[in-house]
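Table S2 (continued). Query chain:
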Amino acid sequence: MALYDIGTVRTRMGSALFGMVAGPEGPENRARIHGTPGPRWFAEDRPIRRVHADASMFVGGLRALLLQSLHPLAMAGVADHSDYRGDPWGRLARTSTFLAVTTFGTAADAQRAVDRVRGIHRRIHGTAPDGRRYRASDPHLLEWVHIAEVDSFLRAHQLYGSAPLDQRGRDGYVADTARVAEALGVLDPPRSESELAERIRAYRPALGGTAAARDAARFLLLTPPLPVLARAPYAALAATAVAMLPRWARGPLWLPYLPPVEATVVRSAGHVLVGGIRWAMTSSG
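Corresponding output:
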């Protein structure tokens, strides 16, 4: 294949991936986020920028959704109020745009994005199948969503990132994300990798598998609406995300635990997949 053709394929792949993640308004949002002058919440050398700009976020994001679903009240809120089945890519685009704005955008835009999310959270409340009431603005639920996300992004970056962070960088990443978490209403979020691990351990008694969580896992891993050509790469992405989950998170979601295969075949496939995404996405940057 000619070099020109390779470049064309790369551009098309990058545009398709970016469009799926960022939505139809992605190019316009990207230009505004990165091009608007003004102070930012995070300087260019901060770890949060390094992690959130990396292709490993694709794997980390899927792992985060699976882990978050283990809190029955958080999952009830998603099942009752999120159109993740009818519009999964729209939800992904909104989430990725929020991450991009708070990480790379101006401080004013970041605060506006946070204010919008807090406004949405105030309207989300209900009763879980077990009879317990939930509110999306509950600091306890906000913290679980936050730490599951941060742990997933950090683990994915350490395994598949182009330049994994050292201990100082990992602690700095957790501290950076605490800035956003506090703005969203999390009380005293963790600020180091060890605090993050401790906080996740503290949540484990509140976690468990529910029918809604297992249904969401099946949808996310096996039946998302994808074109035929994307199904095989997505299967590799799904296997890579599952392999990053701790053993205690697999059983409640009825997910397999195969350490030898995960450490060899799945890990190798993950590196190839994330490397391919990184190669393609550089053409859309």
